[in-house]
Write a structure and sequence with these properties.
Keywords: Chaperone, Cytoplasm, Ribosome biogenesis, rRNA processing. The chain is mainly β and about 210 residues long. The chain contains two helices and 15 strands. The chain folds into two domains: about 90 residues, Elongation Factor Tu (Ef-tu), domain 3 (Beta Barrel); about 90 residues, PRC-barrel domain (SH3 type barrels, Roll). A hairpin with a 4-residue loop joins strand 14 and strand 15.
Length: about 210
């Protein structure tokens, strides 16, 4: 049976060990996008193209995941794989210059675009750890085995990660990634078990209990 996930630094891997208190004040290199959404196959989101710095095409990275950018030799922006030519700045305000973007006009055309890093460039993780992106697409089931939906994003909130689940009827369910709400998480098996009673939700297909007047 898979153990529950532990909240970790926002730009880093999570652990599947027993749940621990969330990090109250992550270090600067933990800045990250609000949600880990589905990236192109084989890619992980590392930030977005921000405003220009100078005239040579250098730019700030917004919503940066500094640990991912630090080890990246190549990034994909607007569907184009580009060599990283220079990486400076700080963990919270990194600066990049990449091949093929050599002036402000070229940069303006891709400003706001997601920056993707090849998954192959990520550091190898221990067996009990995973990246938040690994949770996107996994099936969500109730304790009774009923289908609840599918994880479409992982939101990085101050208290803990939150799974954004799309229900079969198209509705949304937000599930905090804590043991009471997610008693079982099997990343390899691509399934998460949620406690609907803890979330104040009815079991799918259950008949509502009539109120006694």
């Amino acid at each position: 049976m898979a153990a529950h996930a532990t909240p970790g630094p926002a730009d880093g891997p999570r652990s599947s060990a027993a749940a621990q208190p969330p990090v109250a004040d992550p270090p600067p290199d933990a800045a990250s996008p609000d949600a880990a959404e589905a990236a192109p196959e084989g890619m992980v989101t590392a930030g977005r193209v921000g405003r220009a710095h100078g005239l040579d095409g250098s730019f700030y990275v917004t919503r940066p995941r500094a640990r991912l950018l630090d080890g990246a030799d190549e990034v994909t922006i607007a569907g184009v794989l580009r060599q990283v030519e220079r990486r400076t700045g700080t963990a919270t305000k990194p600066l990049l210059r990449v091949a093929g973007i050599g002036d402000r006009s070229t940069l303006d055309a891709v400003r706001g675009a997601e920056i993707y890093v090849p998954r192959a460039q990520l550091p190898e993780l221990p067996e009990d750890e995973y990246w938040p992106e690994d949770l996107v697409g996994i099936a969500v089931r109730s304790r009774a085995g009923a289908s609840v939906g599918e994880v479409v994003a992982v939101r990085d909130l101050p208290s803990c990660d939150v799974l954004e689940v799309r229900r079969p009827d198209g509705g949304e369910l937000l599930v905090p990634l804590i043991h009471d709400a997610v008693p079982d998480l099997d990343v390899g098996g691509r399934v998460a078990v949620v406690d609907l009673a803890f979330l104040g939700e009815d079991e799918p297909g259950a008949s509502p209990v009539a109120e006694v007047g």
